[in-house]
Amino acid sequence: MPPNEKSICQILPSFDGSSQNDKQNSWYLSTILNATRFPDDKDYIHHDWTFTLLSEVLPFLLNDEESSELVVNPDVQLRIEYFARMVVQRIQTHLHSNYFQKKKPPPPIKIAVVGGSIPEGRECIIQSSKIKIPSGSIMSNPTYCAWPYRLESFLNSFLGLEVVKVVNLAEEGTDLGFATRLFQHRLLPSFLWNNNVEDGERNGFDLVIVAYETREIMFGETANDGGSSSSEEKEVARKQQLNKFVNAVDGLSCATPPPLIIHLDDLPTVVGGNTHEENVIATATKQKKRKQQQVLGGDNILSVRYADIVNRVLKTDDDTSFGMEGHVVMTWIVAHALADITSQYCSSYQKDGTSAIKIQQMLNENKLNACSSNENKKESPCTFAWFASPKGAGTLSKPIELNQYILPHIIEN
């Protein structure tokens, strides 16, 4: 018989690694290690290097003895419930499709990543004595070496299903205001807009990850004020920019709960020791504090702090040394955060199987505030989105191509 929703949930909470016996931990380590293999690294020449890196990261991800349930406002809770339920149901539908040999698989979960140079792939392809890029591998392209592409590959490999599609909209030299305008004017890949939306699918994205560094979020506001703004003023400015972005994302559609938005926060919370072991202990003792601070990014954003783990594992506070190690570690951190969100939903579902009814009640009781004019007026995306800056949207680059495209739209008096 095809599995039910509860049985699907049973494979997800184990990702947190808590209360696992040695045999289960061994399986857990092996599964993550295999899922991390780059798609065209057929011989897995990075196996030993990845194993060493994973061994250093796991103590941070799995030591969660003081963890507590997420405490978020109702809007974020609605987004989390909807996203987590969609993940579980999408996997279930995918397995049912295979079981009944249906021709058409369910639509993928669409994830957008906005950010600057790091998620675009800066320094990921730098060669070192420890790691070499396989000859002919697409890993030599920074876009494919970067963690957003690795995240898609990891999640699909870990689940054993092609259920995730990650669109990397990161662009070096941009700030969060740039990404806000992309969503406001729908300068996004055309495949996101479907006039015949199927059940369980939505126009736009299901999850949006904000991967801008703090300085890129506040660019043009307080980042260049010569240091005259206080830390409180900078924090207010950061929240304002994040909330503007949330409103732009929410304005894409009013048909369903707005997508879950996760902010990858680069501000550290741990003041660690002088040795790696001391840092592990310091980080473990701060787990509960970090859990309670997960909504610091903005009123409607779930924030995941990653600086503590990345800096401790890479043993540096300098992001110029981020390298391929940083991108692989970021893949694990984001995947763990998504698994944690989904497993908490599963835990709630197994205790009380009325989650779907509760979500519908929340939909009826809570009016969505950010219904865009585009949605209400049924306007199409901007005509000139075809040569917009983001790689996912832009298809024209040569002057002659741009001229041929623009010419029909020019009206001369």
What does the model show?
With 413 residues, the chain is α/β, with parallel strands linked by helices. It has 2 domains: 5-381, no CATH class; 384-413, no CATH class. 47% of the residues lie in helices and 6% in strands. It has 17 helices and 5 strands. The protein has helices at 5-9, 22-36, 47-62, 74-99, 117-120, 142-145, 147-159, 176-184, 214-217, 231-250, 276-285, 287-292, 307-314, 323-351, 355-365, 373-377, 399-406; strands spanning 109-114, 164-168, 207-210, 260-265, 302-305. The chain has a 5-stranded parallel sheet. Helix 2 (22-36) packs across helix 3, helix 3 packs across helix 14 (323-351) and helix 7 packs across helix 14. The chain is globular and about 45 Å long. Mean pLDDT is 71; it is low at 1-6, 13-20, 65-69, 271-298, 367-381 and 385-397.
